[in-house]
Design brief:
Layout (H helix, E strand, L loop, with lengths): L1 H20 L11 E11 L8 E2 L4 E13 L3 E16 L20 E20 L10 E23 L2 E8 L7 E11 L2 E8 L15 E9 L2
Antiparallel strand pairs: 1-3, 1-10, 2-4, 3-4, 4-5, 5-6, 6-7, 6-8, 8-9, 9-10
Length: 226
């Protein structure tokens, strides 16, 4: 993840320097949109021993998308980007690093934050229908599609208080997470701002945890066109 951000920053810096040297060079008009999904994560089932916290379980998706129109009412939207998922856990549950996943009480008296964070390389695709017609994707639409992703990174993060001092601990690992994910998505609203619903059909983990293997659901709002 750090390497990807580094490459992006270097590329943006080089572009800015080149444009400064030659002010006559026109700014490129990329044929696509930057799309940002912001939402909350839920599990269809919660394994025994885990205390899932809804509000800390946030989701952010950052995608570069393209649009291919089919007449004035239909269009195909496709893209690529990063899905940043967080699962907020209660004070008494945790994930430990390694191939196997373990549930147990944290060896800490007071826990302020306990999260599992997962980064995916996602490919979203959907068909949009504009009932009143559109030229460039503006206006009201209904979208139905799919999304697939490859896990790039995962870690747990604790913030706790010990002897009056705030401490942080981060552990990276696979945590028995599936390498791939796939699901369906529905979008409703306008191009610039709309609501979305994602239902992942793949199990979160490679094997069941306390006879339960939860699937992720994400509900939120989208902002498009930066």
């Amino acid at each position: 993840m750090k390497y990807l951000l580094g490459v992006l920053l270097v590329g943006l810096s080089a572009s800015a320097i080149a444009q400064t040297k030659d002010e006559t060079v026109a700014r490129p008009d990329l044929p696509g949109d930057l799309m940002v999904d912001i939402g909350l994560n839920f599990w269809d089932e919660t394994p025994g021993g885990l205390d899932l916290q809804s509000w800390p379980s946030k989701s952010v998706g950052i995608y570069y998308t393209r649009r291919k129109a089919y007449g004035g009412k239909f269009a195909l939207h496709y893209g690529v980007g990063l899905g940043l998922e967080k699962i907020g856990l209660g004070d008494d549950s945790t994930f430990f690093s390694g191939e196997a996943l373990t549930i147990g009480e944290l060896p800490i008296e007071q826990v302020d934050k306990n999260k599992l964070a997962i980064t995916y390389l996602d490919i979203p695709i959907e068909f949009r229908f504009h009932p009143t017609g559109t030229q460039d994707g503006e206006g009201f639409f209904i979208g139905v599609g799919a999304i697939g992703g490859l896990r790039l990174n995962s870690h747990t993060k604790w913030r706790y208080t010990e002897n009056g001092e705030t401490k942080r601990q981060k552990i990276s690992g696979e945590f028995n997470l599936n390498a791939w994910r796939y699901g369906v998505q529905i979008r409703l609203g306008f191009k610039g701002v709309h609501f979305f619903y994602k239902q992942f059909l793949s199990d979160t983990f490679k094997s069941s945890l306390n006879e339960v293997n939860p699937r992720l659901t994400t509900i939120g709002i989208n902002i498009t066109g930066f």
